[in-house]
Amino acid sequence: MLTITYHSHSCFTITSDKVKILTDPFIKGNPLAKIKPSDLKPDLILVSHGHGDHVGDTVEIAKRSKCRVIAPYELIVFLQREGVPADNCHAMHIGGSYNFDFGRIKLTPALHGSAFVSDKGTIYTGNPCGYLITLEGQTIYFAGDTGLSSDMKLTGENNKIKAALLPIGGNFTMDIEDAVKASDLLDCEIAIPMHYNTFDVIKQDPYMLIKALEDGKHRTKGVVVGIEETFILE
Ligand code: NI
Ligand code: MN
Do 44 and 68 contact (CB within 8 A), yes or no? Predict the structure, then answer.
């Protein structure tokens, strides 16, 4: 049985019997977060790109929990320099997949930027990505930050996607209208919205996605997972 717990923004915990995976752990400085980084003890962190609202607390959590971290090559080099132990870093890149002991991870393209920007400067962290996460024979697509892309059609054709975690906030990523189109292209059974309401510019009503998918023209069912709520993937 797989479970998906939402921690707000693009941060989820996805669990199977074998593994606890954390995505883009932006907790500190996240106005919607109800937990502390120290509450999270994952086996693996997936980071989609170098922006602060996605790298978030990766280094702190990874150091404490001694978990594995997967990210595109340039980003993993950055995270290693920031203090993630080298032995726990696994570099991958877009289009690449790898069979781990717990399941399979594949990186997908994302239409976005990727740099770590701080008062010290701007550090290039490669290309942004999404993740196809296959556990217990079920595939979850975590889109990362991305605009709508026709690549999603290929991702849908080549993978039987059970659940897609899709940004809906607009401004930096897809909005609800584009997330509906993405659900069609991905041909996913379930769409779960993310990356909304954290900041004023990405304010959205996630139930509008559910409503838009209910007009009888779509195979996908929308599911809003509230903050610190858990959805069970049957
Ligand atoms: Ni971003
Ligand atoms: Mn973002």
Answer: yes
Contact of 106 with 131, CB cutoff 8 Å: yes
Q: What is the pLDDT of residues 40-64, one digit of tens each?
A: 999 999 999 999 999 999 999 999 9
Residue 123: Cβ within 10 Å count: 16
For 24-103, strand residue ranges (E) read: 44-46, 68-72, 89-92, 97-99
Q: State the distance from the centre of ligand 2 to the C-alpha of 216, rounded, in angstroms.
A: 31
SS3 state at 3: strand
Residue 12: per-residue pLDDT: 99
In our burial notation (b when 16+ CB lie closer than 10 A, e otherwise), range 54-85 reads: bbbbbbbbbeebebbbbbbbbbbbbbbeeebe
Hey, what amino acid is at 68?
R
Query: How far, in Å, is the centroid of ligand 2 from the Cα of 198?
Result: 10
Sketch out the chain's domains with CATH numbers: 2-233 (3.60.15.10)
The alpha carbon of 22 and the centre of ligand 1 are apart by a number of angstroms equal to 17
- The pTM score is 0.98
Per-residue pLDDT tens digits for 140-153: 999 999 999 999 99
Q: What share of the chain is helix, strand, coil (3-state, %, to 5)?
A: 25, 30, 45
What's the length of the chain?
A: 234
